[in-house]
């Protein structure tokens, strides 16, 4: 079973991406729940301002959703 480094099977991630493409909020939320904590941790390494980090995280998540159609299968 292949994973993506987050202990999520690739097949599940593909389904979540397909759901995001269909604007399924449950799939969007699941991806946020999977990747949000790691992304926030990365933001905190560069800045110690929690409020700014939350904005950067939100911008990053929005960019991810914007370009999710470019994910390769």
Tags for this model:
73 residues, mainly alpha, 0% strand
How would you sum up this structure, described in words?
This protein has one domain. 70% of the residues lie in helices and 0% in strands. With 73 residues, the protein is mainly alpha-helical. It has helices spanning 10-21, 25-46, 50-66. It starts with 9 loop residues before the first helix and ends in a 7-residue tail after the last helix.
Outline, from the CA principal axes?
elongated
What is the typical, i.e. mean, pLDDT? 87
N-C termini distance:
15 Å
Helical content stands at: 55-70%
Largest sheet: none
For the CA atoms, what is the radius of gyration? 13 Å
- The number of helices is 3
Domain count: the total is 1
Question: Uncertain regions: pLDDT < 50 for 5+ in a row?
Answer: none
SS elements, strand count: 0
Strand percentage lies at under 5%
Order of SSEs, N→C?
A: HHH
Based on secondary structure, the structural category is: mainly alpha
């Amino acid at each position: 079973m292949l994973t993506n480094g987050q202990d999520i099977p690739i097949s599940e991630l593909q389904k979540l991406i397909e759901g995001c493409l269909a604007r399924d909020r449950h799939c969007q939320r699941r991806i946020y729940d999977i990747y949000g904590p790691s992304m926030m941790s990365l933001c905190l390494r560069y800045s110690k301002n929690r409020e700014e980090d939350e904005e950067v995280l939100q911008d990053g998540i929005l960019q991810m959703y914007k370009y999710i159609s470019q994910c390769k299968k």
